[in-house]
């Protein structure tokens, strides 16, 4: 089976009007088997699972209309898009909107501005993303800054034996500390990775391979033995070319690499995909899982075999070796915000997680609407409710987030609406006592630290991230990009709320959807005035 290689505007309910690309997703259920042995009700669009990618050009505005044919609310989030001055299109349930009710619809206006590169669009209400509501989103440059002959898209995702949301809801009723081992299947461009697919190479051509992990909790490694990769993009940030032997992608991360085809078509070569999870002990045949694909120079040519090398002997992209092409010095820190990963284990059900003293949970009024309607009180985090985990930022202050993790599992941390500088990574907690590797201390180069929107918080480690609060009125969630979001591992940044009150023009459809779902559209987190939070359930203390 061959990859679809040519970049094209897919005919998928799409029409192009000048700089506006209009796409409609009729979101509904579809019974399907994607792993070859388990069939369950997935979520797709326009009757398709997987949902085809969307291609636009830098500067375009994507008008994405979602029509909800499910029996539960949905939202759509453009992962990595800044949404400058349009936080109400960020698509996070009960943060920037109430959600699209069953039978309802909403149009997301996604202005690409100056952004280009590799992104994706996914559901952000519960765990609907893991059930199929996700698709690559490619923003092509107006003028190609790196020379290559052809574009190849490599989409990686994990697929469980049952819907993740149903599994978590059921486990809330039993006594357990964690999800049972769900040895998932890896999907390569939407197809069971065990089905070998072919990528056609022609001698001496240069290929841009865009690789993204849109899965829930599994990481992926990608290698092309016999070929050299040069990273030119990470999470939508153009980088100085970096030679690597392979890619390592946590959920939510994306890379573009340039691969130079060889001069001879004597052999075909492997495109090796490995799916793994650092929270699962290795079990032969179950985890990690290996999915060999084929780089084909000539039909019928023999495969060139290479001896397997250990990962430690190979060069992988790292946030402390990558450099943005457009240089920016490390910002100073006017304010340091410490986020310690914590958990609470109840007697029944799954653990609650958090990045502070409380576990994040939805409130009755979307945080954005509270920021919009609470006047001067919107600058006080207390009015949003303790479970909203709100941090209010001042306009243009330089913020440093220090995120610590004393757990034997890494976490892909994603910050909405911006990229951040990765300035430091180091050890935290007693890794040696747990038989784990001690994270080495690494400090970024001060003249040009790496910038991206999703970074791995290592097990028994910490990271320091810096950014300037230059998005007045933005309401942005910071969260673990796995099922841990559903368990509360998040905080919400509310940036200069008075600017939001002065400038925001919230779409009427957003307010109508809130009313249809029975949620208030003003007031504090409980829908009341002042500090009266009557009606909110107690926050889970950690």
In words, what does this structure look like?
The chain is built from four helices and 35 strands. It is mostly beta strands. Strands 12-11-10-14-19-16-17 form a seven-stranded mixed beta sheet, with no helix packed on it. Strands 13, 15, 18, 20, 21 and 22 form a six-stranded mixed beta sheet that branches. Strand 11 and strand 12 form a beta hairpin. The chain is globular.
What is the secondary structure topology, with strand pairs?
Elements: E1 14-17, E2 20-33, E3 39-45, E4 54-57, E5 61-68, E6 76-79, E7 105-111, E8 117-123, E9 134-140, E10 150-159, H1 164-171, E11 185-188, E12 191-192, E13 198-200, E14 206-213, E15 219-223, E16 229-234, E17 237-244, E18 246-249, E19 254-260, E20 267-276, E21 289-296, E22 302-303, E23 335-340, E24 342-344, E25 352-354, H2 367-373, E26 390-393, E27 398-405, E28 411-415, E29 420-427, E30 442-443, E31 451-452, E32 454-457, E33 461-468, E34 475-480, E35 490-495, H3 497-503, H4 508-517
Parallel strand pairs: 2-5, 4-9, 10-14, 13-21, 20-22, 23-27, 26-35
Antiparallel strand pairs: 1-2, 2-3, 5-7, 6-8, 8-9, 10-11, 11-12, 14-19, 15-18, 15-20, 16-17, 16-19, 20-21, 24-25, 27-33, 28-32, 28-34, 29-30, 29-31, 29-33, 34-35
Strand percentage: 35-45%
Which structural class should the secondary elements be placed in? Answer: mainly beta
The count of helical stretches stands at: 4
- Could you report the average pLDDT, rounded to the nearest whole number? 92
Q: What value does the Rg take, in angstroms?
A: 23 Å
Distance between the termini: 50 Å
* Cross-sheet strand order for the largest sheet: 12-11-10-14-19-16-17
Q: Helix coverage percent of residues?
A: under 10%
